[in-house]
Write a structure and sequence with these properties.
This protein has 282 residues and is α/β, with parallel strands linked by helices. The chain has 6 helices and 16 strands. 22% of the residues lie in helices and 31% in strands. The model has no long low-confidence stretch (mean pLDDT 96).
C-alpha cells in the first residue's frame, strides 16, 4: 500500500475551511497513488483553544458531520484517511483521531496522554483501550502527538497486531528530537511502520515545526520533511515486513525478535499506579 502524511496549516475554529483543505489534499494524495492518508492532530478544529467553553462549539460526535464529509471523499476516491478532530461525547470533549474509509467510520481513538498545552489542558483523558482497525490489507493503530513519548502506547498497538501506527500530531518547538529520533525508535523497537503527520503555521503565538516523517519496521526513514512548509510525504509499505518480527541477521548465529524476547513477568512496575500528581478528569 502507498501511504501519505499531509503536513498542512490549520485555521483555529474554521471547521468548514479546514475540511475543504483536508479534501483538497486527500484528492491530491490519491491522485499520486496514496491509498491511506494521515492528517495532523485537530486538523478539523485547530488546537490552541483557551478553555473548554471555547472549544465546545467545534467538537463533534463520531460519527458526525466531519466524519461524514471525509468519508464521502474517501468513498469517491476509494481511499482511507486518518485525521484529528475534537470529539464531543455528552458534556465531555476528547482530542481524537478517526480512521475513515469508503464505507464510513472504521474506528476512533481518544488521546491517552495529555500535555499542558493548547486544548489538551481542557479536554478529558482518553478512556478507551488501545485498538487496531483494518484498512484494506493493513492493520492500523492510532496514537496522537504526545502519546509517542510513551513507548507503552506503541507497544500495546503492536501486541494487538498493528502493521502501521498513524500519529496525527501538533509538535511545537521543543519536539525536534521526537520528530528526528523517537519515531524511528518506536518503529524499530516494535518492527512496525510509523507515519507522523505534523501541522505547520502559527496559532495564538505557538508555532508548529512540521518535520513530519514516515518510518519503516527496521527504524529507517522512508520519507521526511526537513522544515515547516506545507508538503505531502509518500511511502510504500508492505504489511508482511511488519508481521515478521523475527529478524535473522546471520543464520544460526544472530537473530532477534523484540516481541518473543520480551520478559513481561518482570515488567510489573509498568502497571503500578504512579505517585506523581496528575490533574483529574478534565
Amino acid at each position: 500500500m502507498k501511504i501519505a502524511a499531509v503536513q498542512m496549516d490549520v485555521t483555529l475554529g474554521k471547521v468548514d475551511l479546514n475540511l475543504s483543505a483536508i479534501e483538497a489534499r486527500l484528492r491530491e494524495a490519491a491522485a499520486n497513488g496514496a491509498e491511506l492518508v494521515v492528517f495532523p492532530e485537530c486538523a478539523v478544529s485547530g488546537y490552541c483553544f483557551d478553555s473548554l467553553d471555547e472549544a465546545l462549539p467545534f467538537a463533534q460526535p463520531i460519527p458526525g458531520p466531519a466524519t461524514e464529509y471525509v468519508s464521502a471523499v474517501c468513498s469517491d476516491l476509494g481511499v482511507f484517511a486518518v485525521f484529528g478532530m475534537l470529539e464531543r461525547d455528552g458534556d465531555r470533549v476528547f482530542n481524537a483521531a478517526v480512521l475513515t474509509g469508503p464505507d464510513g467510520v472504521i474506528g476512533g481513538y481518544r488521546k491517552t496522554h495529555l500535555p499542558f498545552l493548547g486544548v489538551d489542558q481542557h479536554v478529558s483523558y482518553g478512556d478507551r483501550a488501545f485498538n487496531v482497525h483494518q484498512a484494506g490489507d493493513v492493520r492500523v493503530g492510532m496514537n496522537i502527538c504526545y502519546d509517542s513519548a510513551f513507548p507503552e502506547a506503541s507497544r500495546c498497538l503492536t501486541l494487538l497486531g498493528a502493521d502501521l501506527i498513524a500519529l496525527p500530531t501538533n509538535w511545537p518547538p521543543g519536539a525536534e528530537c521526537v520528530a528526528s529520533h523517537v519515531l524511528n525508535t518506536r518503529a524499530m523497537e516494535n518492527a512496525v511502520y510509523f507515519a507522523a503527520a505534523n501541522r505547520v503555521g502559527e496559532e495564538r503565538g505557538f508555532r508548529f515545526i512540521g518535520l513530519s516523517r514516515i518510518c519503516g519496521p527496521d527504524g529507517s526513514t522512508l520519507a521526511a520533511s526537513k522544515d515547516d512548509s506545507e508538503t505531502i510525504l509518500y511511502a510504500e509499505i508492505d504489511p508482511a515486513r511488519s508481521r515478521n518480527k523475527r529478524v535473522v541477521r546471520e543464520v544460526g548465529r544472530h537473530a532477534i525478535d523484540r516481541l518473543a524476547d520480551r520478559r513481561p513477568d518482570l515488567y510489573g512496575a509498568l502497571t503500578e499506579p504512579h505517585s506523581l500528581d496528575r490533574p483529574g478528569d478534565r
